Amino acid sequence: xxxxxxxxxxxxxxxxxxxxxxxxxxxxxxxxxxxxxxxxxxxxxxxxxxxxxxxxxxxxxxxxxxxxxxxxxxxxxxxxxxxxxxxxxxxxxxxxxxxxxxxxxxxxxxxxxxxxxxxxxxxxxxxxxxxxxxxxxxxxxxxxxxxxxxxxxxxxxxxxxxxxxxxxxxxxxxxxxxxxxxxxxxxxxxxxxxxxxxxxxxxxxxxxxxxxxxxxxxxxxx
Length: 222
Description:
There is one protein chain. By secondary structure, the chain is of the alpha+beta class. The protein has 8 helices and 6 strands. The strands form 2 sheets. It has a 4-stranded antiparallel sheet with strand order 1-2-6-5. Strands 3-4 form a two-stranded antiparallel sheet. The chain starts with 18 loop residues before the first helix and ends in an 8-residue tail after the last helix. This is Nitroreductase family protein. Keywords: Flavoprotein, FMN, Oxidoreductase. InterPro entries: Nitroreductase, Nitroreductase-like, Nitroreductase/BluB.
């Protein structure tokens, strides 16, 4: 079918998999991601820069509003810069844990046993910060948060596929990252420490939401 277009379009004809092969791939993908966990204990062992590049290339495949791709990933392994980021992050975290009256939020976090100490920001070999671009070349971007969130999800999945771990760290506010990383006009979205889990790494004993709580077939399957 030929359609009239004002802008360039190209054919898209991905191979259609046999049903069972497609389902097998889906099951394997779920098994892969079901083994992923957020990590706060990292090994200092080096991670090649290409791993970060590959994860960002995966993030770049994310759909975005009007295909504006309103994200920027900034990565550093510079020890001095990592130390400065940790110092600023811990300052905000001390306010959160010790100065702000947020009893419900603090209670919700209790089972994770987190605190204001964020030594992983120096131990992990890489820190990667995703930034949201509310404007590009003076023009507004659309569905910015949704677009950047999807890109970050793919970034996390790509890291896990390479045997790497990360954590979605979001100290509040995060404006110090804009200043430290020189990203004027962009909003810090998530701070990712990236590396291999430490040999003695532990994670909370958590259970994921079962399928029947995560999925509803409206109208049934008839």
